[in-house]
Here is the input.
Amino acid sequence: MATGPPSSQALGTPISEFLLSSGTSGGDPKLIPTVKDELDRRQLLYSLLMPVMNQFVPGLDKGTGLYFLFVRSETKTPSGLPARPVLTSYYKSDHFKKHASNTCTSPLAAILCADVFQSMYAQMVSGLCQRHRVVRAGTVFASVLLRAIQFLQQHWEQLAANIEHGELSPCVSDPAVRAAVAGILQPDHKLAQFIRTGCSNGDWAGIIVRIWPNTKYLDTIVTGSMAQYFPILRYYSGDLPIASTKYVSSECPLGLNLHPMCDPSEVSYTIMPNLAYFEFLPTDGGVAAATELVELARVEAGREYEVVVTTYGGLSRYRVGDVLRVTGFHNAAPRFRFVRRSGALLSVDADKTDETELQRAVERASVLLRPHGAAVLDYTSRVCTKTIPGHYVVYWELTATAQQGGVGTGSVDGNVLDRCCLEIEEALSYVYWVLRVVDGAIRPLEIRVVRPGTFEELVNLAVSQGASMGQYKVTPMRDGLGRHPTS
Ligand code: AMP
Here is the structure.
């Protein structure tokens, strides 16, 4: 469809564009077909979010939202249709311009600026100038909210100087953005001083409520791979409630959280049956059993399923890749907890690196060890989010290779490992590359070489704790998600 004639014969309605999903397919983002009225369905879901929130948090109509929203530059498919991420498509739509853009502190021109730095800068300065009006703050995914805080940590001096003089730095050069911010930014010595005092002492605990004191909750997804960011968000937000309000994907919108003020570990989403046709593959011990599909109305509480969608855009019985657990019912509609992305091993932002991709990348990098007479004996990996943005850490145990006459692992120095890091990164997906290089949403990958015998000790430990020697395998260490190597 992307390379052929522009309209599809497979559907009654022509394909209007392709959405670039972060779910990777052989290293490239998938192109998800969509149709025009899919935006109406997305809008339907979004328009329900505030009525639900209003049931739990009073006074939200008295202020505005501090939302950091971004678009990416788009391309065209050979058939002439736009290819862009779903959020870019939504923010550029009339739906967003009409319904949502005037309910947040960020000017539309700043949101629509594809230069991430300029966009973030303009959105931050606008948010600071309107700090008393903000009653809710967020981003779609938690990782982006943390990047906004990091941006403030890095640029508060310049931001304060701009507010002092009522003029934006030349680093924001986009004329439309400058014009939009000019309507908000006034010389304000008191505010500039407030920002300097608040940011200069190095104490960032509760910074969100200190700068935006009327914020009642954070609106950002902290389920799934975003759960790793929950503790650090609590730190920055001074324990504000965090609402994970929606469950959405490029394939189709899926559902919303009808109890948004619950603890993040308790979040469940109610799937709306009018957004697509939803079916479920029961998963057995983590693997989707090739049995019959179960309809939405027939899923059973307590069981886990992989979600399968038939969409208005033309996907037929398509496996999204998400595993969900039924936690109960809202009237007759089942509620689902997000359990995991099937196959995803490492994820910092929208990237989802699976085992095969990492294996291929490690193999490519380990070729660089050959001239040094070394090889990778065993490895594991994890995401480190101690610093924001997070990064991948790959643990290697090296061994000397006989072919090289045992030159040994000693000659594998920092330079060699640096080149191995780059080689791994180059072998990872296109989505990883964009987030790492273009957006700066992922820090450089790190290889840590462990002592010889470490992995054997790990096996012995697992076996001493009752694991089967024959079945033992090292799994990634996802400390952010509270999981550790298991057998
Ligand atoms: P994309 O394909 O880039 O649109 O990303 C969609 C994917 O993001 C979904 O299939 C999920 O894996 C993940 N996702 C979206 N919303 C949530 C949520 N509320 N909780 C956990 N994961 C989510």
Q: What stands out?
A: Residues 21-23, 86, 221, 223-224, 244, 247-250, 320, 322, 338, 341, 350 surround adenosine monophosphate (CB under 6 Å). The chain has three domains: 7-244, 247-341, 345-452. The longest strand covers residues 318-330. The chain has 14 helices and 22 strands.
